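Input/output pair, single chain:
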Amino acid sequence: MTVLVRDFRPADAEGWVRVRRAALPYMITTPEQAVAALTGAPAARRYRMLVAEEDGEIIGTAQVGLAHDSPEPGSAFCDPYIHPDRTGRGAGTLLLRTAEEYLAMAGAATVYTWVPDTPGDRAFAAKHGYTPSRAAHFLHLDLANGSLPPRQEPPAGVELRTGADFADDPRPLFEADAETTADEPSDTPARFEDYEEWLADTWRAPGLDHHLTSVVVADGEVAAFSAARTDGAGRYGSAMTGTRRAHRGRGFAKLAKNDSLHRARAAGCTDAYTGNDAGNGPMLAINRWFGYDICATEVRHARRLG
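Output:
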């Protein structure tokens, strides 16, 4: 049996999702998202999706590209995942080698990758020259059987809206997303500067549920938001929860996320997932308040090319 690596094709979407859901059950993934991620990627990202195939079966995937929105020039990413039942066949090594060769030709100097925090995965990363840095946690909340904090009434001068209320003009959400994303702990911080790119990449992305996305408006402007993704199979994921700098310390992130979670449960979602940098104490505390439990951890690794 021979393993080969090739570029993703739209017809691979179901196989891609099958692998990703098996390797990352706490990530919201759909075939539509997989296709849109490739076709809608900005040119500057030099984005590639690779699949590892064995006898016609997709057993591994990798997302590869330049971190074009990072202020650190030469940063790139490669995130390979193998189906847990198909490890030990060399697919991970082939995906990584193909990705590194491509990224080197694209001008990358440093490749970042997320590695599951298991002895085998960390040993694989070390064997290929990657060194660990920061960790991030995945968290799970049982929406079907767990309890949520009661809904909160917004204080005077504050109102709750949904993302759908901004359908005609989502720019205020773009500005809030850009500001909060820039403040996230990361080895490759991102700067959202292109509104049209954000519309294509984020706002119009399949899976982003505008009706379950909650927005806090204070003094007439967007103060905080909690963006939601769904997969149509009862799974809900927090895409991003953030508060603009001028409004921090007022409990708005809790207010937005609580509203979104209540909406999700009412819409039939049974499982909620989110992710946090291990050093993001404030957001981890908020998620513990909601009842989330850590279900997995990944460690960011990096390797200098050349």
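The longest strand covers residues 131-142. Residues 141-299 form a domain with the Aminopeptidase fold (CATH 3.40.630.30).
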